[in-house]
């Protein structure tokens, strides 16, 4: 990339990258959505994904701390409210715990993180470090994976409800909310990026930030696939469906 792109060209480049690299293309998600995982593998996915969910407000708080414009902070802080809720038992984190509860997972095991795969932990915390260390523009650009979230969420809900008798619509409530939250958030972030990436260097940084974030999401699924699908080699302290899966 050697010439400045127009805002619409930049958006097209970002969307093309997402179409190629977003984690909906990962083999693990294809197995999950088509009903080809067993209950223990679905539990492992939900448990490990909780680490990402619980760290989303930490990531957004790190971004919020970088914003000097009060108007910008007022918009961005809604993301934290969406995940933390305004009261106990509300918000995206609570809804994800409702999913892990419904799958029969011990809540303390989930929230403590003691049964996580190391790859999950490293990927999620690399993302937090990225938004702390890079420019505000890059931090905001890294959130643009939300552009592609509604499609994967729709496929996930339809596929899981069709194929897994241990999953209910109520257990998937987290995703119902994200169908409206993610488009709102991504529209704002995309508009911000298109306005502020006004040099070739900044546009390169924006594209690299989305590339990095796609890698964060993809690497979490790499860890799950390696540990719970093929070849089935996992960290000795990681979740073991045979002994820690509990009952539905």
From TrEMBL:
Presence of the UniProt keyword Thylakoid in the record:
no
Q: Which InterPro entries match?
A: Haem_Oase-like_multi-hlx, PqqC, PqqC-like, Thiaminase-2/PQQC
Domain Thiaminase-2/PQQC span(s) in chain numbering: 12-222
Q: Which domain of life is it from?
A: Bacteria
Q: What is its EC number?
A: 1.3.3.11
Determine if Glycoprotein is one of this entry's keywords: no
Any single GO molecular-function term of the entry would be: pyrroloquinoline-quinone synthase activity
Q: In which pathway does it act?
A: Cofactor biosynthesis; pyrroloquinoline quinone biosynthesis
| Class of enzymatic activity (EC top level) | oxidoreductase
The reaction(s) annotated as catalysed by this protein in its Swiss-Prot or TrEMBL entry are: 6-(2-amino-2-carboxyethyl)-7,8-dioxo-1,2,3,4,7,8-hexahydroquinoline-2,4-dicarboxylate + 3 O2 = pyrroloquinoline quinone + 2 H2O2 + 2 H2O + H(+)
From the UniProt record, give one GO term of the biological process aspect: pyrroloquinoline quinone biosynthetic process
Q: Which UniProt keywords apply?
A: Oxidoreductase, PQQ biosynthesis
Its family remark reads: Belongs to the PqqC family.
**Annotated function:** Ring cyclization and eight-electron oxidation of 3a-(2-amino-2-carboxyethyl)-4,5-dioxo-4,5,6,7,8,9-hexahydroquinoline-7,9-dicarboxylic-acid to PQQ.
Record's protein name: Pyrroloquinoline-quinone synthase
Organism, scientific name: Frateuria aurantia (strain ATCC 33424 / DSM 6220 / KCTC 2777 / LMG 1558 / NBRC 3245 / NCIMB 13370) (Acetobacter aurantius)
């Amino acid at each position: 990339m050697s010439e400045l792109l127009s805002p619409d060209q930049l958006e097209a480049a970002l969307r093309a990258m997402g179409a190629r690299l977003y984690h909906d293309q990962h083999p693990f998600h294809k197995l999950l959505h088509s009903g080809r995982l067993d209950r223990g593998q679905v539990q492992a996915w939900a448990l490990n994904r909780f680490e990402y969910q619980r760290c989303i407000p930490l990531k957004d708080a790190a971004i919020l701390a970088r914003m000097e414009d009060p108007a910008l902070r007022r918009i961005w802080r809604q993301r934290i409210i969406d995940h933390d809720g305004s009261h106990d038992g509300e918000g995206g984190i609570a809804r994800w715990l409702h999913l892990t509860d419904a799958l029969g997972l011990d809540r303390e095991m989930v929230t403590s993180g003691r049964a996580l795969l190391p790859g999950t932990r490293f990927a999620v915390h690399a993302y937090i470090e990225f938004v702390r260390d890079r420019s505000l523009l890059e931090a905001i650009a890294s959130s643009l994976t939300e552009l592609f979230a509604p499609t994967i969420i729709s496929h996930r809900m339809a596929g899981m409800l069709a194929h897994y008798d241990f999953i209910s619509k109520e257990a998937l409530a987290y995703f119902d909310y994200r169908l409206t939250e993610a488009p709102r958030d991504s529209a704002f972030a995309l508009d911000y990026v298109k306005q502020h990436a006004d040099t070739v260097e900044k546009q390169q940084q924006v594209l690299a930030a989305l590339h990095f974030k796609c890698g964060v999401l993809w690497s979490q699924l790499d860890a799950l696939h390696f540990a719970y699908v093929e070849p089935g080699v996992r960290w000795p302290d990681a979740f073991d469906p045979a002994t820690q899966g509990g009952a539905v």
